[in-house]
Request: fold
Amino acid sequence: MRYCSGQLSTCQGVRVVREESGDCPWPSGIPELFRSHIRHERRDAAEHRQRILEVAQRLFAEHGVDAVSMHQIARAAGIGQGTLYRRYAHKGELCMDLLHERYERFVEETVTQLAATATSPALERLDSVLTKIVALLEEQGAMVGPVGGTDMRDVQCNESDISRHIPYQRSPWYLWLHELFAGLLAEAVRRGELAPLDVPYTADAILAALHPMVYRFQRQERGFSSERILQGLHHIYIDGLKTPSAAMEMA
Reply:
């Protein structure tokens, strides 16, 4: 694989649409993992599906995924259980449909944001992406665990069956984020915001800290707030990597 200013020019398993920004293209488009569920459906069917997802999202947020049954979702959505099961064979399918939509939206928002801030310092843009990822992890809560790498053919919203999971580091989501982080880090080195460093390793290190299971452990077991986690990431990977001159300029 070849890096363009530290950015992967190819990414196996990821659909990459290039948008020019400066002297190096940025990755755009949706990783295939989050495009595979796209379906063609009538307007009324799409609206019906959206209603189910909105109700499920609210119930999951209020009570947690495990505590909500398909019967509760059907009743709250004002539909019969048979109708719900014809669309979603089990709660896992519904859960993953929610995650698909949110992650697609995240990628689109991130690409738009990077395009709009192309002239801003690379570290500033990296910091904004870290903020968005922490907010996403916080928002998804209990549902986010399996997303890093999951075999979509038969998924539940839990982690009881390890055989259903593909390695997080090989998932299209991970590869897309690695490419994004590597591009921003390499640009920061080129602009003098960072001293020369091992770009691929640093991108992996950031992603390790953002693993959904690590985030869940820090929130639930350590009792860290999302603000504390974000502050730690900023301290290590933004302030901690700046060159002295860049630190003074951005202070």
Observations:
- Strands lie at 3-4, 7-8, 17-21, 24-28.
- The chain is about 55% helix and 5% strand.
